[in-house]
Amino acid sequence: MHPLCSSRIMTTVLLTLLSYAITSPASGEPPQRWQPGDPAQVLPGLIPAPAEIPGIGRWQAMPLPIRSYVKSIKFSPNGKSFAFGDGHYVRIHDTNSMQLTGVLVGHTGNVTSLDWSPDGQWLASAATDNTIRLWQADGVPGPVLEGHTDTVTGVAWQPQGTLLASTSLDGTIRFWQPDGSPGQIIRGHESPVRMLDWHPGGKQLAAGDENQQVRIWTVDGQPGPVLNGHVGPITAVRYSPDGNWLASGSSGVVAGEEPQTVAPAVRLWTPDGKAGPVMQGHSRKINALAWSPDSQQLVSAAEDRSALIWNLDGTRTGRVEEEDETTNLIFAIDWHPVHNYFIVGGRCVVRYLTLNGQIGPSKLIRPRGSKLMFVDWNPQEDKIAVAGRDGTIDIWSSDFEVRQTIEAFRTPVTCVRWSPDGKQLASIAYHALKVWNTSGENILGFPLKGSVSRDLAWTADGQHLAAVTSSGGQVFLFDEEEEIQNFTLHNAQIHGVSFSPDATQLVTVGGDSYLRLHELKDNAKGRSPGAVLKVPDGDVDAVQFSPDGKWIASGHATTARLWHPDGTAGPVIPGFTAAVLRLDWRPDGRAFATASWDTSVKIWKTDGSLLHELPPHSAPCWGISFSPDGKKVVTCGWDGILRVIDIESGAVLAVAVYVADTKTMEAPHDERRQSPLSFNRAGQLLSGDRSILESRMVYLVQQPSGAMKILKPSEFFSQAPGADLTSATANP
Hints:
Blueprint: E1 9-13, E2 32-33, E3 59-63, E4 73-75, E5 81-86, E6 89-94, E7 100-104, E8 111-116, E9 122-127, E10 131-136, E11 141-146, E12 152-157, E13 164-168, E14 173-176, E15 182-186, E16 193-198, E17 204-209, E18 214-218, E19 223-227, E20 234-239, E21 246-250, E22 253-254, E23 260-261, E24 265-269, E25 275-280, E26 286-291, E27 297-302, E28 307-311, E29 316-320, E30 330-335, E31 342-346, E32 349-354, E33 357-365, E34 372-377, E35 384-388, E36 392-396, E37 402-407, E38 415-418, E39 424-428, E40 432-437, E41 442-447, E42 453-458, E43 465-469, E44 474-478, E45 483-488, E46 494-499, E47 505-510, E48 514-521, E49 526-534, E50 540-545, E51 552-556, E52 560-563, E53 569-573, E54 580-585, E55 591-596, E56 601-605, E57 610-614, E58 621-626, E59 632-637, E60 641-646, E61 652-664, E62 672-679, E63 685-687, H1 690-696, E64 697-702, E65 708-711, H2 713-718, E66 723-724
Parallel strand pairs: 2-66
Antiparallel strand pairs: 1-37, 3-64, 4-5, 5-6, 6-7, 8-9, 9-10, 10-11, 12-13, 13-14, 14-15, 16-17, 17-18, 18-19, 20-21, 21-24, 22-23, 24-25, 26-27, 27-28, 28-29, 30-31, 31-32, 32-33, 34-35, 35-36, 36-37, 38-39, 39-40, 40-41, 42-43, 43-44, 44-45, 46-47, 47-48, 48-49, 50-51, 51-52, 52-53, 54-55, ...
InterPro entries: WD40/YVTN_repeat-like_dom_sf, WD40_repeat_CS, WD40_repeat_dom_sf, WD40_rpt
Organism: Symmachiella dynata
WD repeats: 104-136, 145-177, 186-220, 279-320, 365-397, 487-528, 573-605, 614-655
């Protein structure tokens, strides 16, 4: 078999250590060594347990391009700045220039909600770490509000500024004093509460929950009207500035064994709970609502990639159009308090829009080339393979100090899988499959008919490979020399494929909501149909046999499921808020890991119980793989972050961040080259391009006030002239 093309290999072995000039103190004293940071004292963020560096104090690092899906964004009351959540960080930017002016560091989970106090002196932030943090406008940290027992989903200041209210997945609404002291707790909701908003008069608030209801509560915690009529969890509530209307939106989907799906609606209500106009025009979940300052128009944004403009009588007056279909999904909206435009947050993008579409050249958008789609840990060696959107495959050591790059394809790599003996690496791109040895040499190649290839699987003996494409419903089987058969199994995209350990069964899953089992014969040259399993909760995105052959795990729209090899159902694992994209079994077959579009990373027992919940990504998590000893996992996501995590402690042991290079791919595909940067705990570059570091990263140093100072990498290292930062390998 002839390889489809040759490869060019680049190896980086600790040759790109950050080497900014460091001078010794004038006294001639020897430079001080940096020391590992105390995990209990360091600032949370990208760098795990940042080192104690003499002359610097507490610090962190942050990618300058947006890494997350921006789901909360707010103008300051005077409109001169805006704040939004980007993973664990809160970023503050100047409205006119869009320049970064402040970063708030403290949350250990993803930021979910923000709100400025009416006088603009305080900013409240909520996160998945179950806390609320108060910050002065200049970035000085204030009280940390603790009391919720699950993710805090919403925060809102009373218009008079005398109370802060919060909602949580724990089903409660809590009031807080401006000094952070706790107030009343409202426990009247019967399901997780997703968001809230105060009436401009400050005497009542509205909260939406997952039980399809909007409930009105008085400022002293007394129940008011219950607003029914939505289908699916409530996703947005906003009072008009004049207080005459309450707008609410929903998902349009009720989960369960028999899911109900309808076109979601925006509904208007009077403050006393009387139903007003119903606005229909979206086909998928409504994400955000925003009123114009004069209360005469309402904007709704949904996952159907549309933003619609409504009058108070419920008539649609316009549709906001954006140029880029890949970034026009809007999660958050806020109207400027003075001018007739609004700011939106989306997939790694922040931009201004008017009723006629986007305005101005300024926008914050992550350049293409940062997404990570797949990762696989070599089952026999200390090697981790990462699929690149720029057509490359990176092979890392697990400490991310050594990197080998294979120039594999001219289109994005969608999957990489090590052979069971660890000596070969299979990879697929849009229309081809290639196999590499551990030296990075292309030893096999096969064309694949159809659309984008999606998944790969090896047999346990390494003698056969299966590949599936995302359209056409086709499965391809190969041995070491040729394609031995291909067949069409699904009436939609195929998302996953896996062999049983004894290679007598093959399972495939797809967008038609089916799992299909197949009996293989004659050394995989023949087959017969097996069980066909229909699941109720939408597409099936991932599937994998357990190493001992006792279970099949599958990932769905809001669940993970276990099946016996004969097709009988096992435990159903609910609780995901978005699709389970990837699965991987622990080598002993007694637990498996899930990576989800909702950013979560979790480990499950085979009885369906949660074993470990690990730090999430700040955008959909698309890759997960166990280490050979089953004690660690490596994960990757659309935030461009690659991490090795200790499962028992949840500690991040190593991190690399993929950012867009200045170069584009040499192919008709709108992707930039990916430039990976890995760091030690002193913030030094272990692997990567130093010029890319300077343009794509900032360092954050805590000042005596507690506020963070933003520095370029070169500025950061010049802050510690007495520290020895020239040898990254001298310390752990």
